[in-house]
Amino acid sequence: MATENDTNTQRPAAPKRVVGRFAPTPSGRMHLGNVFSCLCAWLSARSQGGSIVLRIEDLDDRCKRPELAAQLIDDLAWLGL
Questions:
Q1: How far is 22 from 42, CA to CA, in rounded Å?
Q2: Which of 10, 40, 45, 59 could bridge 20 with an S-S bond, Cβ 3.0-4.6 Å?
Q3: Which residues are 53's β-sheet partners?
Q4: Burial profile 39-75: b = 16 or more Cβ within 10 angstroms, e = fewer
Q5: pLDDT score for 49
Q6: Which whole number is the average pLDDT over 64-77?
Q7: Which of 11-15, 22-26, 57-61, 74-78 has the highest mean pLDDT?
Q8: What angle do CA 33, 68, 38 make, to 5 degrees?
Q9: Which pLDDT belongs to residue 42?
Q10: For 45-54, what is each residue's pLDDT tens digit?
Q11: Cα–Cα distance between 30 and 35 in angstroms, integer?
């Protein structure tokens, strides 16, 4: 007789939603390497029903320029990513 603790009666865990990320350094316009990395992350997550997040974290205070981060976001929007 099976009980609730029997491993055969336990429900499998629900699959977790895939979330990829793209974390470039905002140092200027996107270059082909950035575009390729973002596209690969986007395609991989999307093929699994997920999404990607953009993570902009510039740890070097001397080089922080918010306008470059905004430009990067604009470039990604233009690309449809």
A1: 9
A2: 45
A3: 21
A4: eebbeebeeeeeebeeeeebeeeeeeeeebbeebeeb
A5: 92
A6: 87
A7: 74-78
A8: 30
A9: 92
A10: 999 999 999 9
A11: 7
